[in-house]
Amino acid sequence: MLNFDCFIIAGGKSTRMKTDKLLLPFANSNLPEYIHSKISEIFSNILIISNSKNVYIPDCQVYKDIIQSIGPIAGIHSALSNSKTYNSFIIGGDIPFFNPDAIMFLKDNLFQHDIIIFSENGRNQYLFGFYSKKIIPKIEQMVNDVKIDDKPKVKLSMRDLLENTNSKVVEITELPFYHPHFFYNINTAENYADAQLILRNLS
User: Fold this and answer.
1) For residue 157, what is the DSSP state?
2) Which of 96, 133, 138, 160 lies 20 to 30 angstroms, CA to CA, from 166?
3) pTM here?
């Protein structure tokens, strides 16, 4: 077991799905529960970040975003603020086909980086990586920079966060644990149907 807190970011409004995708049946459970079952072999302390009252996994503490309406950075900020470990692993609640070996790779290459994530064909995958508490002040400064009437009015850029912290991005496509569905994201009904087929083929 790795001695890091792990947070499942079960956020998003499922706008394109038109129903809460995190509650849809998936592999005899639902997406967050399926992801939890995979990462529970690696992390002993798994927590959830969600603003939904419907997301529940037994024995997992659920935290809400501390800062609202700033995009995915809100979930990362809340995770780090509530974490009991200096570094935490962050994973999105709708990417079920990851290979757990990738987590060990990131851990082995964490070193002194504040953030370490993968890119896939040059596209950064922000909700799968290790983040340190050291970046909390940076996120809060970014929020203060865009406040209007004491409330942030825009979604903050994850790319800006990476560029202004000690971060490392690793291209995953050449690594042995990669497969084409690794970061398959379920956003639409068609994605959901395809994911059921992928699941059967990977089983």
Assistant:
1) P
2) 96
3) 0.93
Tokens of 156: 């903050």
Q: How far apart are CA 152 and CA 53, in angstroms?
A: 24
Distance, CA of 94 to CA of 25 (rounded, Å):
12
With contact defined as beta carbons under 8 Å apart, do 86 and 133 qualify? yes
Give exposure, 157-173, as e/b (b: 16+ Cβ within 10 Å): ebeebbeebebbbbebe
User: Angle 136-145/73-82 helices, nearest 10 degrees?
Assistant: 140
Place of tokens 């504040």: 114
Q: pLDDT tens digits for 36-71?
A: 999 999 999 999 999 988 888 888 999 999 998 888
Give the span between the Cα atoms of 18 and 113, in whole angstroms. Answer: 38
